[in-house]
TrEMBL record:
Coiled-coil ranges (or none): none
Pfam families (UniProt xref): GDI
Designated name of the protein: Rab GDP dissociation inhibitor
Annotated GO MF terms: Rab GDP-dissociation inhibitor activity
GO cellular component labels: cytoplasm
Lineage: Eukaryota, Fungi, Fungi incertae sedis, Mucoromycota, Glomeromycotina
One BP annotation, GO: small GTPase-mediated signal transduction
The species this protein was found in: Paraglomus occultum
InterPro entries, per database record: FAD/NAD-bd_sf, GDP_dissociation_inhibitor, RabGDI
Family: Belongs to the Rab GDI family.
Source domain of life: Eukaryota
């Protein structure tokens, strides 16, 4: 291991694996190390034995759950927007040939005591039971306005400037009711809170268009979300494989003893009595405790069920439900993600549901209650809290580039923004995502 690399990557979380794959494809000599004996780091998918080892040390998994290999439980539940940045990066790198995907059957929003399907088109708006008749028309007009918008054609603007008009003012223009604004902002634009209302409407416009185009991206999608068969742990492994094809070196189960600096700049990483040298090191926050700050906490509950989530259309096998902050009387939304054996993440006749939110009180589990209540009887529950961390510096001074923790959102758009940001700081250029010519193995 005592040799020179262009970049050393620490941790096999999704962010780190995407970056090592992208940099390897560009001809950089990459060494990738992880102290764990499995891929994925914080974003791993664990079999039941590993899951019980992590959350019930000393306990053993009950035999009734069947074989380990039938279970791939995500520690960080996220779905992929079918037209989102992660899908574009997967196609750009051709990692899609290692992974199969399946759609998520439904996208729901909670309102009052009930859950409703999220309308994703003008037609959906007219048939939704979420609103009264007049509000359906107003929502239809609002969605038509967004889809017809053309920056170069003022006749499509209806007096709105997306860059200077606030989103709140756009809602006012279409006279949308508070409940409609709530599900548009939280279940379509996928904001965690309401701070977006006073910002310019451009970002919200782009998020809603992403939602709508994701639903229509592939034939027969029932929601804007897709998900890899066998769990999210497949994603880091796919990018690790890409990196290896282009000459990247991987070492799992490798102790990281010291990040080595000379004159304030990183020069390598020491593991036991070997040192690998590189002028740039990328890693997740757990490898750089003195260089990150805590900006919050996320609480998650992984639940094993013996039934689909009640009150979803004909008991769907996979859904996302968003409980907007105001419905839960909180500052942040609560997310519920549910999967079944059709995605090869649990044994036959079982279902996985994961409830997550940003921590606001000193009783985090109680904060998940509105989401847990929707699940019906729960067979087994693992509750855990993790810190949200971000780097204190951008890494340009010392050559150490640190990723952000995975947030409570239910999709990968924030992860992709972090990948693009680190890529630009490491290489000095923007990541341009386009389909590549294949390099055959």
């Amino acid at each position: 291991m005592d040799e020179e690399y262009d970049v050393i990557v620490l941790g096999t979380g999704l962010t780190e694996c995407i970056l090592s794959g992208l940099l390897s494809v560009e001809g950089k000599k990459v060494l990738h190390m992880d102290r764990n004996d499995y891929y994925g780091g914080e974003s791993a998918s664990l079999d039941l034995t590993r899951l019980y080892r992590k959350f019930r040390p000393g306990g053993t998994k009950p035999d009734e759950y069947g074989r380990d290999r039938d279970w791939n439980v995500d520690l960080i539940p996220k779905f992929m927007m079918a037209n989102g940045e992660l899908v574009k990066i997967l196609i750009h790198t051709d990692v899609t040939r290692y992974i199969e995907f399946k759609d998520i059957s439904g996208s729901y929003v909670a309102s009052g005591e009930k859950i409703y399907k999220v309308p994703a088109s003008e037609q959906d708006a007219l048939t939704s039971s979420l609103m009264g008749m007049f509000e359906k028309r107003r929502l239809k007009n609002f969605l038509e306005f967004l889809q017809k918008w053309n920056d170069d054609d003022p006749s499509t603007h209806q007096g709105v400037n997306l860059d200077t008009t606030t989103m709140s003012a756009v809602y006012d223009k279409f006279r949308l009711e508070p409940g409609t604004r709530e599900f548009v902002g939280h279940a379509m634009a996928l904001y965690l809170d309401d701070s977006y209302l006073e910002r310019s409407a451009r970002e919200t416009y782009e998020r809603i268009i992403l939602y709508i185009t994701s639903v229509t991206r592939f034939p027969n999608l029932k929601s804007p979300y897709i998900y890899p068969l066998y769990g999210l742990g497949e994603l880091p492994q796919g990018f690790a494989r890409l990196s290896a094809i282009y000459g990247g070196t991987y070492m799992l189960n490798k102790q990281i003893d010291e990040i080595v600096y000379e004159d304030g700049k990183v020069v390598g990483v020491r593991s036991e009595n070997e040192t690998a040298r590189a002028k740039q090191v990328i890693g997740d926050p757990s490898y750089f405790t003195s260089k990150v700050r805590k900006v919050g906490e996320v609480v998650r509950a992984i639940c094993i069920l013996t039934h689909p989530i009640p009150n979803t259309d004909s008991n769907m096998n996979s859904v996302q439900i968003i409980i907007p902050q105001n419905q839960a009387k909180r500052k942040h939304d609560i997310y519920v993600a549910s999967l079944s054996n059709t995605h090869f993440v649990c044994a036959q006749n079982y279902y996985l549901a994961i409830v997550s939110t940003i921590v606001e009180t000193d009783n985090p589990e109680a904060e998940l209650q509105p989401g847990l209540k929707l699940l019906g009887p729960i067979k087994e529950k693992f509750v855990y809290k993790s810190d949200l961390q971000e780097p204190i510096e951008d890494g340009t001074k010392d050559g150490v580039f640190i990723s952000r923790s995975y947030d409570a959102t239910s999709h990968f758009e924030s992860v992709c923004a972090d990948v693009k940001d680190i890529y630009k700081r490491v290489t000095g250029k923007d990541l341009v995502v386009q389909q590549r010519a294949r390099q055959e193995e």
